[in-house]
Every structure is written in C-alpha cells, then in structure tokens.
Known about the structure:
The complex is a heterodimer.
Chain A: E1 3-7, E2 14-15, E3 28-29, E4 39-43, E5 48-55, E6 60-65, E7 70-75, E8 90-91, H1 97-102, H2 105-113, E9 116-117, E10 120-121, H3 127-140, E11 146-147, H4 149-155, H5 164-173, E12 175-178, E13 186-195, E14 198-207, E15 212-218
Parallel strand pairs in A: 4-10, 11-15
Antiparallel strand pairs in A: 2-11, 3-13, 4-5, 5-6, 6-7, 8-9, 12-13, 13-14, 14-15
Chain B: E1 6-8, E2 16-20, E3 25-29, H1 43-50, E4 58-62, E5 65-69, E6 75-81, E7 88-89, E8 99-103, E9 114-117, E10 120-126, E11 131-137, E12 144-149, E13 152-156, E14 162-168
Parallel strand pairs in B: 4-9, 7-10, 8-12
Antiparallel strand pairs in B: 1-8, 2-3, 3-6, 4-5, 5-6, 10-11, 11-14, 12-13, 13-14
Amino acid sequence: MSDAATTNGAESGQPLGARKSPEPNTIFEVKQNVVPGATPIFDGDLNAVIGYQKAENDGWIYYFDVFGRQVGRMEKGLEKPLIDPIDLIFILGGVSRLLLTKAAPRLGARVMGAGVVKTVAAKSVPPSALQAMRKVFSRILPTSLKFTATTAARMATPGRHVPIHILELAVKHGKKVADPQGTKNAFLYTIQMFRNGKPYTLEVLLRQTDRTVLHFVYK
Amino acid sequence: MLPDTVIETQTLSVADILWDAESLTLDVRFAVPDAVIPRTPPLVSRVETAVGIPQPMYRLALGDLMLSGDSNRLLSGFDIRRAPTGWHRQSLDPIETSTKGAIRLDADFDENGLASVDADIDITVDDARGLLSIERRPCPPIAVWVEVAIGVVAGLDEGGGIAAFRLTAGPDLP
C-alpha cells in the first residue's frame, strides 16, 4: 500500500516565516513598466532584483525602481564604479566570467545554457538611487501572504519556488479571474514572470479572505 | 521491448500520496531508486557542482499535470490541482504490470529545466477497488505499464512518453 495522507480543507494558511531561498542567485523578475533594454540591478543582500539601469546615448546612465520609475541618473564616466557594470555578468551559482571564457567549451555552453543573465550589482549603483530602489522594494515586503501545506512545501523546492515578493507583485498587477476550480473567495492571478531572463506565465491562486496562497505555478 | 526512457530496477520506494483539500492538489512523491542513479555523474555535472552551480531539477508540464524529475531527469513525482467535482467516478480496466523501474523524462527542456506540453488530463477514481487514474485525454495506446514506486504505476506510450498513472488510492483520498 502507498502512504496516503490528507490535509484538512478547513485549515487556514500559515505565514511562511523567514527562510532561506532554495535558489539563491536565481534572477526572478516581474517587469512592470520597465524601460526596454534596461539591465536588472541585483541586490545580493536581498537576493532580489530591486531596480534597473539603462545607459542612454545622451551620456547618462538612468536608474529605475522595480516599477520602472526613474530614481536617479549618473553621467557616464563621471564616477568609476567599484566594479565596471559592463564587465559584471551574473551567473547562476556565482561563477565568474573567467570560468565562462576559460573552461572547456562544453562546460561553457552548459553554463551559458543554464541561464546567464546580465545584471548589475547593487553596490555599483549611486547611493541615492540605491536607497530609493531599496525603499520602494521594501514596500512590497513584509508580506501578509499565508501558505497552505502544499504551497509552503513548494516554496522550499528548487524549480518550484517563487520569491514571495514576486507572488505579491503577481497579486498586485496580475490579471484576476475567479478560480477555475471553483474555490469560494479565491482568485487566480496571471502575470508574465522572468526566471534568469526567460519568460514564463506565473499563476497565483489567492484566497482573498485570509490572503492564503492556495496554489502557484509557472510554466 | 522497453522504451529507452525506462531503467529497470528491482527495488522501489514507497510513494507518498498527499491530498491537500485546501489547495485541491494531489501530490505524489517518491524516491528514485539508488540503483538507477549514475554512480559517477557526468564530468560536466561534477565540475558544475564543484564550482557551486546548482544542478537543475526538471519539470515537465503536461497541461495541469506537473511531472518532477531529479537532476538526472528521472521521474520523482507529480502533482495536479483539480477539484474532486471534476474527477470521474467509474470502474477502471485492470492493467498488467511486469516491469519495475525509473523513467527518464524525455522533453525539450529549456535552460531552467522546464518543458511544457499542451494536454488535457482526466482523473478517474474507481471507488470499489481503491484505484485512481490520471491520464491524458485522448489517451494514446499504452505500450507498457511500469511500476515506478510502491503504489504508483506509469503508463508509457510507444515513444516512451508518460501518458497515464495508476495510483493505489489510500482511503483518505476524496
């Protein structure tokens, strides 16, 4: 016989609490009003994309928060960043560009195939712009989202996990419909999400009454 | 002759079958038998592991049915969200299972280890015999049934693709 177990449908969701991401350094984005061609700014402390930058032909680098609102600009070449943003290529697992260029071609191809996303490190952003980005990002969190046994388990599973602020953004900006499976007071939110630069459709099912995430998946 | 997506083994783990009535999700998990896991991972995997690149976990979406594979693409579980009101209730035809093994997921996975195939999925419960069927609709002819865990049998089509599952449904399932 198999081990079969049932969780009671009457139980309510639980907050997730502080936990480590099962996929550190994986780049998740929900691009809201982001300037086309802008480069994501990854904050290693928050393990999240907190904004974007774009170098324009007018000689300025423009900085935007996660919702695409401009929060600052810096003249190109005016200030030498600690690390040249153009040189910084963020790679899954934190492998340096050296590995990409020096390692065996097969490995290089595999690493490239595994999802190389060009990002800018937060520490290379001017302090005032960085502060503004972090302030906007902090408004997304802390979250009041709760989770069922199933969705809490998903949040700890590599390949299934979605950062909680991305779930919040989906609920805030996604297309909303009633749960196709008919759950009372539950709505399905759909939004385009990027993982390591590749687009997917993220679905989040939320029970409105207690903000419990009943289901989420991207594919 | 078995499809090349099947790796035969004699030992199987017991499946965990969880029905979450709150999420309306049927979740099936089982361990891939040690005997079928490559003793020496490919060189590329060893190098990647050594330098801290996480090995991808694979996911294949067949419509609403999500198949999970380990870093070797070996099936390690599946789940589906479906309200019991959408389950069929009828007797199921018996199946013949003569093979135990692991199944390698065969799909065009992207760089994140994801693949998606449009498919309609039916869930059918045979209350009298305590069986549960999950299958594609229309279901292609099943070439072979492979027991992948104690309590879980997978039906493969001629090409070795997963077309159906049979579960020994526990008494707690709806």
